[in-house]
Amino acid sequence: MSRIAYVNGRYLPFAQATVHVEDRGYQFSDGVYEVCEVRGGRLVDEPLHMRRLQRSLGELKIAMPMSLPALRVVLRETVRRNRVRDGLVYLQVSRGVARRDHPFPPPGTPPSIVVTARSADPSAAERTAAAGIAVITVPENRWERVDIKAIALLPNVLAKQAAKEQGAKEAWFVDPDGYVTEGSSSNAWIISRDGKVITRPAEQGILRGITRSVLLNVLRAQGLELDERPFTREEAYAAREAFVTSASQIVMPVVRIDGRPVGNGAPGMVATALREDFHRHSELI
Ligand code: PLP
After folding, report:
1. CA 115/CA 52 separation, integer angstroms
2. Backbone phi, then psi, for 26, in 5-degree steps?
3. Whether pLDDT at 1 is above 90
4. Are 160 and 185 in contact (CB under 8 A)?
5. With a 6 A CB cut-off, is 187 part of the ligand 1 pocket?
6. pTM above 0.85, yes or no
7. Greatest alpha-carbon span in the chain
8. Is 243 helix (H, G, I), strand (E, B) or coil?
């Protein structure tokens, strides 16, 4: 079955799904994106993703490409046309097409929008979670506005590649003071030896992950103690458990950091329980 993408008003087979060479997303990475989990054909926590999309666009002064209800229809239609039951839906909005020039294009230039969807194998994800993943640490080298889900992801790409080359699945950025900010495509968490769940506050240095926000409710429901504060790389080395969160991985146990085993080197009990409980607290629409 050929994959279908939604591009600026049309559903097209991938081979014909193209954008203009002077699209600002292509020329300047001048755009934002969202990734939403699809589960049983429904979107997970879509309202929260849509709210963050609107915020990202607002911070960059890019207009919504269409009304929110219309966008929600396009997301579902793209999922349906690609027959995705379990997987991801991806959406990207750029500042549109204009002659290449750094300042914003003339007012009224329509933003561009692309939506794609793809299936993922839930049992493969469970196998990965049962084994846990390795992470490496890399120096933080991103701009300050990581709160915006911008498509400009070069440091993240380089960090992820470095992880891959070292046999790891994720890279954690570490700021000049030695504190972990977040992963290249996930938020970072540890559980201390005394059982506190520690994650960096979303006010500075990280993207406010939707999975992170929902997981805070799961923690509360499970009666776990949350310590929302930055943690150092050394604290992570000494942690009892570690894990990452993102829409594509939900809660993914971390079993090695820079080659050192976390706890006993196996996925932690708390992270595993949080993963199992997550979808009872998320909204499926
Ligand atoms: N941090 C970064 C840099 C990300 O790219 C992502 C997701 O792609 C996240 C955190 C997790 O966000 P969410 O849980 O909304 O997927």
Report:
1. 16
2. -70, -45
3. no
4. yes
5. yes
6. yes
7. 58
8. strand
